Amino acid sequence: MSRPAALRPPRASRTTVAVRDPEASRARILDAATAEFARHGFGGARVDRIAGAAAANKRMLYYYFGNKEALFRAVLERTYEGIRAAERELSLADLPPEEGIRRLVEFTWDYFLRHPEFIRLLNTENLHAAHHLKRSGQIRSMNSPLIATLRTLLARGRRSGAFRGGVDALQLYISIAALSYFFLSNSHTLSTVFGRDLSSPAERKARLAHMIDLVLGYLRRPAGRAVR
Prior knowledge:
Elements (H helix, E strand, L loop, with lengths): L13 H7 L1 H23 L2 H7 L4 H8 L2 H21 L8 H18 L1 H12 L11 H22 L8 H17 L1 H8 L6 H19 L9
């Protein structure tokens, strides 16, 4: 026999649950938005699909993030914070210079492989000429520590005689990221054009080895050249 309606405990609404645990609600919305923007781009993403996937309602989504543009910006910021936080765990500054560079190349490759949404979101934002990132108050401070760490590694390597001088840390990082980014974001077309399955485990293993050799070969000081 069912209980009278007046005696039944009230059913928790989505809004009530969200208010009780705002951090969990924000995280669910960001998870759903990341998947939606990565799949459909900014223009094709739909707020109602994001709300549905997050078990929230559109009113709660707008309460936390304001509008679709602000939500996409929050997704980009969290995406960058994710890779930067993972890089910090490498403790690159504590490693010998050559090992630190090798580890960064390996990490960047592995991270891009495990997070294809990262590449897709960057592709979308580049199509929008970084419109959303330009309005972020956090993005530059997130990325600066990595470049500072690279400068430290390069300076130590130069003093030890392992690395040559005159290397720009920012240019080096862009090159490391590009070696992975271009290969993975274009693997389908490259495989078709050159008639090789570049997504196979053997090809990916060979690519990583090639990138490490390329970066370290560029950095190593030629034999007989004095340290500057």
